Amino acid sequence: MTPALPSLRQDHIPRGIFYMVGSTLLFAGVNALVKWEVALYPVGEVAFFRSLFALIPCYLLILPRTGFGVLRTQRWPDHVKRAASQTCSMMSIFLAFQLMPLAGAVAISFSAPLFTTLLSILVLKERVGPHRWSALVVGFLGVLFVTKPGAGTLQLGALFALANAVLISTVAIAIRRMSLTESTETLTIYQLSLITLFTALLLPFGFATPTLQDALLMAAAGVANGVAQYWWTRSLHLAPPSAVVPFNYLSLVWAVIVGFLVWGDRPTHDLLIGASVVVGSGLYIFWREALRRRERPAQPRENYSAR
């Protein structure tokens, strides 16, 4: 039987946007819970429980449709390396949440597309014109606005947030390569399973028995993260990335609102200016990439992973 061509898939843009916006809301809630949890429990423990409980909705949503055949792969080393990078990325952003306001950490994390473009040049040898080079330079200036490294105010949390952005960009590059042979479902299953295994190895270095209420909140954060991951993937299945990915930047809006309502964090002028520049540069790079795709022959849609 001949498989259907992805290029002929019918788009459902309104539904895709709905799933993307829903995923940003869930991720915002998860990030707020994580910021609260890492103030009370070891970071490795919080990371483990979030990953463990994220497996439940992903298995329930994926395995009934695909069966265990989704686990077949010839790229074990690539899955392990990608999961290791993503584990370090998750630990970095959790430490950033612990050490700085939520909105600032999220704003810096949105510099990941800038690092992805830079790594695409260095690793994938992609050709980048003056438009995207300009967007890169401007975007990194926006990161400097948020972190203020020359004013003696560079926080350790900002360094962890930057580390998260760099590591996420390496994951994005890995996904670009692996999506040629691996399905989105395979990438997601191995991502969460291996991250759960890696974070379990951190438990001997710090574990505090949670109260029943805290345990339930940790479980809720994990389940919500798993659903958000699936909704993100679903949105990119239903609609072209150019139509839905820009809505991902609503995560920064939710982070500002939650940070103010829960912790009383007021966004500074530097944060608002820097975040606007970073988001604008990321959107411009994405738009230029969309233009380049239109100029190429029709190709199957790429697989993406949220985080």
What does this structure look like?
With 307 residues, the protein is an all-alpha fold. It has one domain. 73% of the residues lie in helices and 0% in strands. It contains 12 helices and no strands. It has helices at 13-38, 43-66, 76-99, 102-109, 112-122, 130-147, 156-178, 184-200, 212-238, 241-244, 250-263, 269-295. Helix 1 (13-38) crosses helix 3, helix 3 packs across helix 8 and helix 4 (102-109) runs parallel beside helix 7. The longest helix has 27 residues, at 212-238.
Major sheet description? none
Pick out the low-confidence regions. Answer: 1-8, 298-306
Strand/helix succession? HHHHHHHHHHHH
Shape: globular
Helix run count: 12
Q: What distance lies between the first and last C-alpha atoms, to the nearest angstrom? A: 34 Å
Number of domains: 1
Which structural class should the secondary elements be placed in?
Answer: mainly alpha
Proportion of strand residues: under 5%
Average of pLDDT: 84
**Counted beta strands:** 0
Q: Using the CA coordinates, give the radius of gyration.
A: 19 Å
Helix content class: over 70%
Concise summary:
This protein is mainly alpha-helical. The chain has 12 helices and no strands.
Topology:
Layout: H1 13-38, H2 43-66, H3 76-99, H4 102-109, H5 112-122, H6 130-147, H7 156-178, H8 184-200, H9 212-238, H10 241-244, H11 250-263, H12 269-295
Helix pairs in contact: 1-3, 1-9, 1-11, 2-8, 2-9, 3-7, 3-8, 4-7, 4-11, 4-12, 5-6, 5-7, 5-12, 6-12
Key attributes of the depicted protein:
single chain; 307 residues; mainly alpha; disordered N terminus; disordered C terminus
